UniProtKB/TrEMBL annotation:
Residues 251-264 have a biased composition (Basic residues). Keywords: Chaperone, Hydrolase, Nucleotide-binding. Residues 280-375 form the CobW C-terminal domain. Belongs to the SIMIBI class G3E GTPase family. ZNG1 subfamily. Residues 246-272 are annotated as: Disordered. It catalyses: GTP + H2O = GDP + phosphate + H(+). One of its GO terms (molecular function) is hydrolase activity. Zinc chaperone that directly transfers zinc cofactor to target proteins, thereby activating them. Zinc is transferred from the CXCC motif in the GTPase domain to the zinc binding site in target proteins in a process requiring GTP hydrolysis. One of its GO terms (cellular component) is cytoplasm. This is Putative GTP-binding protein YjiA. Coiled coil: none annotated. InterPro entries: CobW-likC_sf (IPR036627), CobW-like_C (IPR011629), CobW/HypB/UreG_nucleotide-bd (IPR003495), P-loop_NTPase (IPR027417), Zinc-reg_GTPase_activator (IPR051316).
Amino acid sequence: MVSQEARREPGRKGPKPPIPLSVLTGFLGSGKTTLLNRILKDPAMADTAVIINEFGEIGLDHLFVDQTGDGIIELSSGCLCCTIRGDLVTTLENLLRHLDNGRKDRLTRVLIETTGLADPAPILHTVMLHPYLVMRYRLDSVITLVDAVNGFSTLLEHEEARKQAAVADRIVFTKTDLLQTPAARAEFEKLKHRLGTLNPGALRLDAQSDEVQPSKLFDAGLYDPNSKIPDVATWLNEEAYAANTQGHAPSHGHHHDGHHHGHHHDHDHDHDVNRHSEAIRAFTLATDRPVSTSALEMFLDLLRSAHGPKLLRVKGIVHLAEDPDRPVVIHGVQHVFHPPTTLEDWPDDDRRTRMVFITKDLPEGFVRKMFEAFSGALLPDTPDAKSMTDNPLAISGFTSPVR
Ligand SMILES: Nc1nc2c(ncn2[C@@H]2O[C@H](COP(=O)(O)OP(=O)(O)OP(=O)(O)O)[C@@H](O)[C@H]2O)c(=O)[nH]1
């Protein structure tokens, strides 16, 4: 699987390396087509297949994308995340078929542009859950465009926008050239602060600067094709989560459901920003203690079966008790986890188990307690482990298989 790719020597026979697949998302009018047009001119984008999802009876977006020909595939008459996932599977299969039968020479990456209202998770699931596609494609980056002018109010008002921001590996600010007034710039600061809570680990880029290039947008996955040693530190970016936790005192972790702040424009305090987005949290768990394989499986199984929809994104590297020299990498989007990957070695001296979480309506304390019950204090009758296994709701989670 992917770890084979990391070990592959040029010219050696074996399964073809998986093709990186990225998702370009962002709210309505955030500038997806504009950015796409710009990066498609870059020679690094040659041999990229772009799948554009239209929503509405007559697809128009492809008319505005400059490049024509084989590379652009339009999927219309529905939204990828809802009704036309089958079309996406067929399209991805056809691309492989063309590659395998020689009708297409090279396919270096696939980029899927979603509609502005799409939840990216089901699109990622389409690939992760497909037994063949998951072998031939690997999830590389989720790139989320955020309008610097309207982004703050969009985040406040639209759940889809918050989800798009929360699952991103890259956040690209668009329209920063329009931040002309002090008020607009102050609003932009609030937007950045809010994004820091939703998703502290994503690399931020400005569409108006030269930094928005394929090399910065892509290759955000664990595996850099140019390097044999996976860059786990960059991939997890756990320091960003730590800074985020320190920056937000625990007393701000709760929200006031009974009190809705209808007007949010002139409030800058965390409690006032938005009661909804407070439900999305980003945090990290770490432990020095090796984790047994069964404990890891139970923890993940319970999490994803009982709380799957609340796990917007989970990434981690785990020190297994049974195989301490070969860490296991986990990666999940909601209830769907990639098959865990075993690395041949630790990427650096840090051999702790580390996991980063972006959750919705799932408090950090709950996940932490559960993790401690299964990992740290795994002795059978510690109070935490006991309370977990005594919980009938928790037990029901054990029944579904870990992929
Ligand atoms: N000033 C400025 N305008 C921008 C920028 N990026 C995009 N726009 C403009 O914003 C409008 C919307 O951009 P699009 O690229 O069509 O946005 P989109 O996300 O593809 O839109 P939908 O497909 O409707 O979701 C267009 O008028 C663009 O010219 C930017 O960085 N600065």
